[in-house]
């Protein structure tokens, strides 16, 4: 059994998804790139963290809040960007947003979202835009402007996807199967037919400054595993570095994020915020991430699987994570997230 500290409820979520989703959508959500080595390794990698808990500390009142880019979140986890939310459940991004707002968390909205930024913003959720940049950068400007107008508080540049990695499976392209009305609705009509709309193969640190200039928002770079790249991001003005291997969906055999976190923290921690995702499946995993020094943990497949039951499923997920996180913090003698720092060691 994979050790994720969840007591089996993630398995139940997966079972529910297997029963409810069509085969191509299920495959899209669960599959990793190529042989799925990185995707499989991510789940359970957090069980390699060992705690050295404090004792004899008053843990009557536990405060799980963190501050990200100047804004308070009630919990140290947030929702990573994922496309096809409306293919998982008709509630889609709106259900994800409402449930996430109610939990006092934050949602990163994929640029491929199937719901307009204006509608997502109107839910009152704290949200950041995730963007891929096209070969012709100017083509991204309308989408970026819409996100700013709808209240995005930061822009997350995903940098691990110059091309979409090969995934084996039914061989069907999910993007050809889903109703075009429920994906990529924030792009101009005909966007994909324009020359220069393919993903940029020439992204560089200068794109960080360009994005900050166009949006006036803080820029977070998602998909960094190496300390030297983290430094380049921060030198170029990134306010946050997000340690991620895209949930094992891009370069297969990429290292686990838990093993890369410390190097990135050593390189840029203190100068920029550092986040991590990949394989986190429980409150215990979240506490491991912040105890190792991450400013917050992001969750990809977990909220997407919870969304199989619509907004209510995501409400339940946040509640469960909260229970598990408070329990782990109490047992670790940590009254605040700051108290967790330094009590964890990655072994092996
Ligand atoms: C179905 C699916 C769609 C995703 N779509 C995006 C996306 O549009 N943009 C992006 O930056 N990351 C995307 N991701 C990656 C997630 O943001 C995140 O990095 C990853 O899922 C974290 O690993 P986890 O699923 O083990 O939590 C996607 C992930 C999944 C599972």
TrEMBL record:
Task: Write the record's keywords in alphabetical order, separated by commas.
Answer: Flavoprotein, FMN, Oxidoreductase
Q: What cofactors are annotated for this protein?
A: FMN
Keyword Flavoprotein tagged? yes
What EC number(s) does this enzyme carry?
1.1.3.46
* Amino-acid positions noted as binding glyoxylate in the UniProt annotation, renumbered to this chain: 28, 132, 246, 249
> EC top class, in one word?
oxidoreductase
Where does the record place the FMN hydroxy acid dehydrogenase domain?
2-348
Coiled-coil segments, which residues?
none
What positions constitute the catalytic site? 246
Which InterPro entries does its entry note?
A: Aldolase_TIM, Alpha-hydoxy_acid_DH_FMN, FMN-dep_DH, FMN_HAD, FMN_hydac_DH_AS
Residues holding FMN: 110, 130, 158, 222, 244, 277-281, 300-301
Which domain of life does the protein's organism represent? Bacteria
Question: What would be an example GO MF term here?
Answer: oxidoreductase activity
Per the record, the similarity remark reads:
Belongs to the FMN-dependent alpha-hydroxy acid dehydrogenase family.
Q: What is this protein called?
A: 4-hydroxymandelate oxidase
User: What is the species of this protein?
Assistant: Nocardioides ginsengisegetis
């Amino acid at each position: 059994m994979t050790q994720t500290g969840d007591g089996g409820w993630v398995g139940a979520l997966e079972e529910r998804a297997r029963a409810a989703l069509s085969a191509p959508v299920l495959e899209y959500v669960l599959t990793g790139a190529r042989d799925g080595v990185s995707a499989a390794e991510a789940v359970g990698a957090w069980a390699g963290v060992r705690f050295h808990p404090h004792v004899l500390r008053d843990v009557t009142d536990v405060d799980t809040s963190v501050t990200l880019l100047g804004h308070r979140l009630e919990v140290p986890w947030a929702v990573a960007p994922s496309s096809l939310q409306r293919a998982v459940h008709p509630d889609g991004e709106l259900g994800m947003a409402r449930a996430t707002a109610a939990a006092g968390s934050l949602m990163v909205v994929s640029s491929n979202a199937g719901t307009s930024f204006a509608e997502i913003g109107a839910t009152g959720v704290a949200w950041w835009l995730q963007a891929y940049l096209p070969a012709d950068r100017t083509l991204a400007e309308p989408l970026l402007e819409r996100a700013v107008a709808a209240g995005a508080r930061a822009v997350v540049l995903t940098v691990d996807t110059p091309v979409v990695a090969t995934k084996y499976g039914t061989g069907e392209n999910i993007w050809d199967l889903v109703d075009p009305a429920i994906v990529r609705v924030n792009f101009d009509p005909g966007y994909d037919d324009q020359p220069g709309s393919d993903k940029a193969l020439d992204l560089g640190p200068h794109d960080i400054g360009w994005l900050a200039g166009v949006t006036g928002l803080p820029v977070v770079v998602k998909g960094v595993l190496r300390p030297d790249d983290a430094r380049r991001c921060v030198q170029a003005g990134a306010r946050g570095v997000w340690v991620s291997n895209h949930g094992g969906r891009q370069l297969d055999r990429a290292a686990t994020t838990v093993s890369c976190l410390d190097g990135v923290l050593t390189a840029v921690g203190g100068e920029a915020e550092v986040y991590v995702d990949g394989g986190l499946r429980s409150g215990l995993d979240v506490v491991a991430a912040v105890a190792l020094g991450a400013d917050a943990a992001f969750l990809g497949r977990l909220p997407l699987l919870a969304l199989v039951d619509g907004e209510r499923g995501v409400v339940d997920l946040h509640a469960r994570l909260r229970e598990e996180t408070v329990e782990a913090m109490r047992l670790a003698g940590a009254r605040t997230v700051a108290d967790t720092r330094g009590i964890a060691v990655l072994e092996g």
